[in-house]
Amino acid sequence: MISNLPNRTNAHSTSTKSPPQLGLVCITTSDKVRYRALTRKRLLQLETAEQQQVLRELYTDNLQRLNNALDFCVENNLRLYRLPSGIFPFADTDLGEAVLEEFTEQVRATGDRATVLGIRLVVHPDQFVVLSSDTPSVIENSIKILQMHARNMDLLGQPRSPWAMMEIHGGKGDRAERLIQVIRDLPDEIRSRLALENDEYAYSAAEILAVCREAGVPMVFDAHHHVIHEKLDSYEHPSIAQMKAAARTTWPVPEWQLVHISNGRESFGDPHHSDFITVMPSAYCNVPWIEIEAKLKEEAIAKLREEWSPVFGTAPPPKPLEEKPLDKVTQPKTQQKKRTSKKAEQPKDKVLSSNLDGD
């Protein structure tokens, strides 16, 4: 059973008009939502023409898989979906960007479909994004990765706002001023979507809140990270509700506030994620959007709905498509137009395809 359930009277008095929307992170434990990946080593073994064809086939497949993910969300009444950070591997290189542009119409159709279905799309770029690094080249590469994600969101037709959130951690600790300045200097397509999350070790919830206020970006509050950082033994510590409420003030539209929940695998303060969510902060009863970071993904969401969400009622299902859903994503014709952008340098030993099942 789920711990820390508020009684129905209190829940009714503090909850939003709709119950919290529980979000799926990237993939499912079943094979219904899965994506293909590609390593840098494998790609570089091929000639340029072969590289292009491999990427075309991969992007075609993963775009269809994204449509399958939208189908899954509709079938399971999910309105929040975190895109895999590596859904289009190598899209931060000239080669990958050029190939992905061939899919402009197909990607936009998929993004429009998500919008019509009422599904919110967000993304959590990988751990290589460190905007507070002491090394300029690391910051430069981090911005390059964020530009790729912003370009993907643009291709999907998603708004330049935190509704289409691109969320990262603070990175290197004790570098708040550098982090704030770098964020302020980011191009609009990145900064307008950027959000920062408190973490277990480097940036506390209070510290990242201060950065968010100074930089003008929203804060994603993670209760599990907070209890680890502050060495707390309960999600009912007053600071949980306080930080959740403070984070809400950083969102330009309060109803867009998004938080994370996870539980420790071996103990309450274990940073490793458990299979299910068995302890939920009562302060989360009136949060609009909650990403469920549990190992068993959709099974954890189903269990939460059975044991926690009924307290707050049942949300209406996403809107059905009025037009026929996309049954197949076809490969576009190869563009003949040459690109003039500069060659992007890539770390020789880095695997650019991201972990697609991260939680």
Brief account:
The protein is of the alpha/beta class and 359 residues long. 38% of the residues lie in helices and 9% in strands.
Would you report the number of β strands?
A: 8
Which series of helices and strands comes N to C?
A: HEHHEHHEHEHHEHEHHEEH
| Strand order of the biggest β-sheet | 3-2-1-8-7-6-5-4
Q: Note the beta-strand portion.
A: 5-15%
Stretches where pLDDT is under 50 for at least 5 consecutive residues are 5-16, 313-357
Share of residues in helices: 25-40%
Structural class by sheet pairing and helices: alpha/beta
Shape descriptor: globular
Distance between the termini: 22 Å
What is the name of the CATH topology? TIM Barrel
Reading off the top of the CATH hierarchy, the class is best stated as Alpha Beta
CATH architecture, please?
Alpha-Beta Barrel
Mean pLDDT equals 87
Could you name the CATH homologous superfamily?
A: Divalent-metal-dependent TIM barrel enzymes
